[in-house]
Amino acid sequence: MLSACTVTGNNGLQGQIPTSMGYLNSKSGEQLTELNMERNALEGTLPSSLGLLNGLRMLQLGFNAISGSIPMELTNLTEAQVIHIQSNRLDGSLPEGFGSLQALRYLNLTTNNISGTLPPSIGTLRGLVDLSLSENRLTGSLPLEIGSMFSLRHLRMHTNALDGNFTALTTLGDLRNLVTLDLYGNRMHGDVPSSIQNLSSLQYLYLDNQHYAPLRQYYCGQRLPNNGKYNYRIVRDEYLTMTSIPCDNMHDTNFAFSSLQESGVYPS
Hints:
Layout: E1 14-16, E2 34-36, E3 41-43, E4 58-60, E5 67-69, E6 82-84, E7 89-91, E8 106-108, E9 115-116, E10 130-132, E11 137-138, E12 154-156, E13 180-182, E14 204-206, H1 213-218, E15 224-225, H2 234-237, H3 239-244, H4 253-256, E16 257-258, H5 260-263
Parallel strand pairs: 1-3, 2-4, 4-6, 5-7, 6-8, 8-10, 9-11, 10-12, 12-13, 13-14, 15-16
């Protein structure tokens, strides 16, 4: 079985990925299991024929100029463990069929122009360890099904246009293995779900100020520095303490999180 990559990255390759590459595994007894064409100058669209590469375990096409939508046929790569197509020009929405990629452990589509909503079928990827979809144009709410991704350690979706109710994500606390939760730079509303306190493995928590009602309640009547993207893991650690303190004069988000200059942290 051929297990080495057909093309290693960073070779200065130009042009489109040939359609014929998708038929490599049908022409001999050997099977291509890894395809790495990262850090080249590839352009054009992803050939749908790549979905015919039965046995492919790793697809790495990051840091190119590939455009167009993700072909539905890629969801036929049921043995794929790694799909990295970050830093390209992909658009369109995520195929609903992503849920069929049951062997997938690492999915990185960061820094593209992918739009639409996160399909609920993503929740069936119970072996997924890293889901990185930052710097795209995703909208809507995070589906409740995401709570079924019990192996997930890193959820990175910062700098999108998610606009759902964060409080309604009641299944968030089921992600007991989650180390990184990065939803900073979206348009969601609502306070952080109370189940945040169940994320016993969480080390990095990046949210926008409007989700931090526990902070505003705990520091009642005080103004907090507007630190931007700041790790407020203390909200997970001290959630019960923060929310148990009565506050009759809790500031709204805009007033509570003052600028660094206004807070006196740094001189103006």
